[in-house]
UniProtKB/TrEMBL annotation:
<protein>
    <submittedName>
        <fullName>Transposase</fullName>
    </submittedName>
</protein>
<feature type="domain" description="Insertion element IS402-like">
    <location>
        <begin position="1"/>
        <end position="45"/>
    </location>
</feature>
<feature type="region of interest" description="Disordered">
    <location>
        <begin position="72"/>
        <end position="99"/>
    </location>
</feature>
<dbReference type="Pfam" id="PF13340">
    <property type="entry name" value="DUF4096"/>
</dbReference>
<dbReference type="InterPro" id="IPR025161">
    <property type="entry name" value="IS402-like_dom"/>
</dbReference>
<feature type="compositionally biased region" description="Basic residues">
    <location>
        <begin position="72"/>
        <end position="83"/>
    </location>
</feature>
<dbReference type="InterPro" id="IPR052909">
    <property type="entry name" value="Transposase_6_like"/>
</dbReference>
Length: 99
């Protein structure tokens, strides 16, 4: 089950394209969701981090590569000079027939 979940996230395949050797994709997906909801993944991660920390196998170095941190596609068109002025209110004409 864990191999199936790891394979899905490592390769990025859709759930329906999970290889048959991992069993029914719906079962894998449902188990992943159940474990996420009931906190199983959090407990596993906490235990693994505690074990690695006790064995001094952790080095907390974080690196961010700016080539993969991108702005949203709509961020390029943002106004630079403050908010856009509001539209003037529409006032009805005194004579609806006059154009």
């Amino acid at each position: 089950m864990i191999d199936a979940i790891a394979y899905k996230f490592q390769t990025g395949v859709q759930w329906v394209h999970l290889p048959e050797k991992y069993g029914n994709w719906r079962g894998v997906y449902n188990r992943l969701r159940m474990w996420a909801v009931d906190g199983t993944w959090e407990r596993v991660f906490t235990a693994l981090v505690a074990q690695a920390d006790a064995e001094e196998h952790l080095s907390w170095a974080v690196s961010v590569d700016s080539t993969i941190v991108r702005a949203h596609q709509h961020a390029a068109g943002a106004r630079k000079k403050g908010p856009r002025p509001a539209n003037p209110p529409n006032t009805p004409s005194a004579d609806p027939g006059a154009v």
